[in-house]
Amino acid sequence: MRLGLSFGVLLFLVYGAVAPPVTEKKKTHETDETDTNEVHQQAVDVEYKKYLEEVVQVLENDDEFKQRLLKADPEDIKTGRIAKDVEYLSHHVRTRLDELKRKELDRLRHLARQQYEHDNGIDRKHLKVPAHIDGSNPHTFEAEDLRKLITQTTKELEDADRERRKDFKEYEMQKELEYQEQLKMLDEQNRLEASKQHEQLLQKHNQHAPIHHPGSKQQFEQVWEEQDHLNAEDFNPKTFFHLHDLDGNGVWDAVEVKALFKKELDKMYDPNAPEDDIRERFEEMERMREHVFNETDTNRDQLISFPEFMEQTKRREFQDDRGWDPIDQKDHPVYNEDEYRLYAQQHETEIRRMIEQGIIPAAPPGYLPMIIPSNQQHQEYPPGVQPPSGFHV
Questions:
Q1: Which of 77, 78, 114, 191 is the most exposed place for a label (fewest CB within 10 A)?
Q2: DSSP assignment, residue 328?
Q3: CB atoms within 10 A of CB 72
Q4: For the chain, what percent of residues have pLDDT higher than 70?
Q5: What is the pLDDT of residues 94-107, one digit of tens each?
Q6: CA 2 to CA 299: how far, in whole Å?
């Protein structure tokens, strides 16, 4: 089951590099070019990507090593303990890995030399040592090289998800804070009107077709029919998996999985609708991706293999469309009251500092202030404060 998966955590970073292997697949997905672009904007990348890809390709050519990987414990793969089996690689494979390592170290030495020359005076011995390669042995590729490559890649992927969730939480709190500050600037009549309009936008956003449970049979059937343009009664899980294995490597990576959510996301988010936040659409896509991997990726290697997928289709949860609870700013915010209160206090402190220095605070990127209808009564504003768009003063 782990064949083709064992280095999944490495391949995750290079999943977008190969085009679909079959012409028919390319035709099937031609109409979804914008979907691919949307997904690839969320791709994770590292500067040693080429080295990572080349090491994986060489290791996959050793049949005996593949057999050892079949028997390996998933935790040994994730932690890099599997790297000790490098000792059993064939001479040809080891020689090729040695060449790749020497080439990577040459690249790093060149970068270090450039940094040294740019900074002019920094001791080369104190330059930051890359964590993805064993620089203490510049001649041969050993178990320590594979262990470092696996563990560093795993760490960067986990850090990227953690940072994404943190940034989105701050974005949502900032958006709520901006709205509350606008309300404070209004008199009672305008505040009631603004609150009413805000509530109407939230309700309109939540009025959409039911969302299928990500990774359920019903959700995949919708993709099969509406995205792949195939007959609903012909749905076949095996065919569906290979149809959406765009690079033909026998596994689904994060990009291929996120592409399956377009129809569900389109139900909730319209880029031309003022009530729909496209930033939330991207976060919703990532939440769905995390959920499907948690349910299906049993060995936690950041890839979904064909055996894992077929095993998931046999479970009761696959047949049971439980729906999906989307991001809901009103009823299910991504932050709690204490987090918001602390954020507001910090924001107020920063605003006071900026006012004292004569700096005008800016709204967060991508956030549009609420437009209130222009039939309000005259209202006085403090010096230096501009009325919201749409007001007559």
A1: 114
A2: B
A3: 17
A4: 76
A5: 899 999 999 989 88
A6: 8
Is 117 within 8 Å of 82 (Cβ atoms)?
Answer: no
Residue 376 CA: distances (Å) to CA of 189, 229, 385, 388, 391? 8, 51, 17, 11, 7
Query: For residues 149 and 10, what is the distance between their CA atoms, to the nearest angstrom?
Result: 8
Assessment of whether the complete model's pTM goes beyond 0.90? no
3-state SS assignment for residue 109? helix
Cα separation of 241 and 250, whole Å?
9
pLDDT, tens digit, 9 for 90 and up, residues 180-230: 988 988 989 999 999 999 999 988 988 899 999 999 999 999 999 999 999
How many CB atoms within 10 Å of residue 253? 22
CA contacts within 13 A on the Cβ side of 281:
23
Q: Is 214 helix (H, G, I), strand (E, B) or coil?
A: coil
What is the model's pLDDT at position 172? 92
Quickly count helices (H) and strands (E) in the chain: 17, 2
Q: Which of helix, strand or coil describes residue 332?
A: strand
Q: What is the pLDDT of residues 64-82, one digit of tens each?
A: 887 777 778 878 877 888 8
